[in-house]
Write a structure and sequence with these properties.
By secondary structure, the protein is an alpha/beta fold. Among the domains are: 1-138; 538-636. The protein is built from eleven helices and 58 strands. The strands form five sheets. The protein has a 19-stranded parallel sheet. α4 (475-482) runs antiparallel to α5, α5 (492-503) packs antiparallel against α6 and α8 (546-566) packs antiparallel against α11. The radius of gyration is 42 Å and the shape is rod-shaped.
């Protein structure tokens, strides 16, 4: 036993700290430490025995397997030749702070107090599966290097915090199926994926293959999860995890190109999720089936996963606010089939996914407002199809650009905006610019606010229903609006606009819109129908211009009266013929269902006989078209 070991031996019963001198002996045998802790030296009466050693080099094996040690263990600023082994031990307060270790084996250890490794330098694996620590596990400013697993703490139970602020860890961290009663603190930490993932056996090989950095599946945290200003090079996974407090990655950088950077699928986050500030992610952010209370903040975030999903949060349930203002996303942002019980805002955000979908809100049920306005910009499709929004969908001052895939040779341009089967009380579409078609088919809108100056060149309106238009529907503007629909022959868009005009009290404008619809249908019909349609248009305006029919009757009546007044027809039976009246005779020719007795009593000859045939045919045509118009009018009313 050397001098330093004797000093330690004598100091242990009273708990006196021992420091290895810079010029003296530094080596202490691990066996000496083990013997002391296993009772080789009894504590002095009235004193608390403890092992307090700093600055030493621990040689040989330091092992407390299955031991029960009441004395605190404080081995700080020490250098371990071999990794300590405390598997299945029951210990009190234990500290390896600022020490250098080739690893630590602490499987199923029970620590009544803190287990401290703050400032430690570990070149190997920290093994703590099944560990139970009543205090906190402290790794603040620790540096851990492992080609495979850096921290194996599956099923760990921590009564306090897992504190690893400013830690620098290379290797996989496993805390799956554990329970932490306090906070997880990774503020300003650096965590990198293992350099040799092939060395990791099942069941963690899948996570290692995806460049996993933290595996926290089914982890329960009764406090918060804080990784503000941290750096993660690999996937952080908290599948089916539950966090009572806030989860904050504010100002954090996550990097896992072409893979998942953050996976929160099926997680329950009671205190909200914060990915704002200078948060940057290269790779996919996933929160499918997650349940998030209070706030989900992405404000100011930068998300990049070109050609893939930048954010996938399908079937997510939000109990608070979704704040995605001023984000920059390169890749698809999708919240399909999610339930949003608070307002959602993408104001001022820029989403880019050329040739694909920039923002997908299909099937969303939102009880409040959804804002895609005030500088919102998307290169790629914006889809809000089949969604139900309880208040307002706002696209005011948005810029939407449908960017086709250069490899796609389809003739039809992709939609810039798809609102197919949307249900919303108020839709605001006073956009800055829309490049590409807009799909409003079968949408149900209460109040539609738009701006004729920013209508897209192509609008699909079949099945769209609305109660009110703002600005108020004017015949000229709204007919131009309907003319932007490639399916102009469809009846429903015209009849919907006519119904709104009629509700405003403008029956003339409503008839004019329906006349425009009939003309559009005639242009697409076969030639017999086109001839018949043109004839109806010229004569009675398809029944929507009754004054035109009356005018034709008056013109024909005047022509017939003048002609037959100048050249009266001869009587068929001179002895029985009544007195001839040119006006009544012409009316008898024009009105096919009325008989005044003049037509049968007098017989025109020559050209005037052909005139009578023309008047009879014109009368039948007028009568038929007027009857058809009356039928349409009665059916609409």
């Amino acid at each position: 036993m050397n001098t330093l070991e004797r000093r330690l031996w004598e100091a242990f019963p009273t708990g006196t700290p021992v420091t290895a001198g810079p010029d003296g002996e530094r080596e202490v045998s691990g066996e000496v430490l083990t013997r002391l802790l296993l009772g080789a030296q009894a504590p002095e009466p009235g004193a608390r025995a403890s092992l307090r050693l700093s600055g030493a080099r621990i040689t040989g094996e330091f092992s407390l397997r299955f031991a029960q040690v009441d004395a605190p263990i404080i081995l700080e600023d020490c250098e371990f030749e071999r990794r300590p082994v405390i598997n299945w031990a029951r210990l009190g307060f234990t500290s390896f702070a600022r020490s250098t270790l080739p690893g630590l084996h602490a499987s199923n250890v029970i620590v009544d107090g803190h287990l401290k490794l703050n400032g430690a330098r570990v070149d190997g694996e920290l093994r703590m599966p099944g560990a139970r620590i009543s205090g906190g596990l402290v790794l603040d400013r620790a540096r851990v290097r492992s080609a495979g697993i850096a921290l194996q703490a599956e099923r760990i139970t921590i009564g306090g915090d897992l504190a690893a602020g400013r830690a620098d860890i290379e290797g996989l961290i496993i805390v799956s199926q554990g329970r932490i009663s306090g906070d997880v603190d990774l503020d300003r930490a650096r965590c990198a994926a293992p350099s040799a993932p092939e060395s990791i056996d099942e069941p963690h090989a899948l996570l290692a293959g995806s460049r996993g950095v933290i595996g926290a599946d089914s982890l329960v945290i009764e406090g918060g999860f804080f990784a503000r200003g941290a750096t993660f090079d690999g996937e952080l996974r908290m599948w089916h995890g539950r966090v009572t407090g806030a989860v904050s990655f504010t100002d954090t950088t996550m990097t896992n190109p072409d893979r998942v950077a953050l996976r929160l699928d099926a997680a329950t986050l009671d205190g909200g999720l914060f990915l704002g500030g200078a948060f940057t992610a290269t790779g996919e952010i996933r929160a499918a089936h997650a349940q998030i209370s209070r706030t989900f903040t992405l404000r100011g975030a930068r998300l990049s996963n070109p050609g893939g999903a930048a954010l996938r949060a399908e079937w997510m349930t939000m109990q608070g606010t979704l704040d995605a203002r001023r984000i920059r996303a390169d890749g698809r942002v999708g919240l399909d089939d999610s339930v949003l019980n608070g307002p959602a805002s993408f104001n001022g955000s820029t989403l880019t996914n050329p040739g694909g979908i920039a923002l997908s809100l299909n099937g969303v049920v939102a009880s409040n407002t959804v804002n895609l306005c005030d500088g919102f910009s998307a290169v790629g499709q914006v889809q809000v199809s089949g969604s139900r929004i309880g208040s307002v969908l706002c696209l005011d001052l948005a810029t939407l650009t449908a960017s086709p895939d250069p490899a796609d040779n389809r003739r039809s341009a992709p939609f810039a905006l798809r609102l197919w089967r949307l249900q919303v009380p108020e839709l605001r579409m006073r956009t800055t610019a829309v490049t590409g078609p807009v799909d409003l088919r079968h949408a149900r809108v209460g109040l539609l606010r738009d701006d004729p100056e920013t209508w897209p060149s192509e609008l699909h309106l079949t099945g769209l229903t609305y109660e009110t238009l703002e600005p108020a529907a004017t015949e000229t503007d709204r007919r131009a609006w309907l003319a932007r629909d490639p399916s102009q022959a469809q009846r429903q868009p015209y009849e919907q606009l006519a119904a709104v005009l009629r509700a405003q009290g403008d029956d003339d404008a409503a008839r004019s819109v329906l006349l425009t619809r009939q003309r559009a249908r005639t242009r697409t019909a076969g030639w017999p129908a086109r001839i018949w349609g043109v004839l109806q248009d010229v004569t009675v305006g398809y029944g929507y211009r009754p004054l035109l029919a009356a005018l034709w009757l008056m013109v024909l009546l005047g022509v017939g009266t003048a002609a037959y007044s100048a050249h009266p027809p001869r009587a068929a039976k001179p002895d029985e013929a009544p007195a001839f009246h040119a006006v009544v005779y012409t009316l008898d020719l024009l009105l096919p269902l009325v008989d005044f007795g003049q037509q049968t009593a007098f017989l025109p000859v020559g050209a005037y006989q052909w005139l009578s045939y023309l008047l009879i045919a014109a009368g039948w045509i007028l009568a038929t078209t007027i009857a058809a118009a009356l039928t349409r009018s009665l059916r609409r009313s």
